[in-house]
Amino acid sequence: MNAPAVLAEKVYKVDYSRLHLIRGRFFNIYKGNQLVYENLNIDLLGFYQQKNICTVLTAVDQLQTIGFSVPQEAIYYALDKVTKITGLQGRWQTIGYNR
Q: Which residues lie across from 40 on neighbouring strands?
């Protein structure tokens, strides 16, 4: 189908910003040397999310090149609410807290 192959790790770089145990990981994302997403929150835990976020953003870029409009606010919202939007549950998910 002649679809382009794009290596996400060559497009985006992740700079760990901070971790919040309830809200998830916050990242600063660079495209080249330019900061394109500051304090981007992903409510999924796990170190591999640093790689996953690059893949997601590269996929969004590809969608935009073929005419889809994906506002930056939508990206911030969707990644902040992945589990709520998708119902995704994972091995790093916090089930509850014993106080």
A: 27
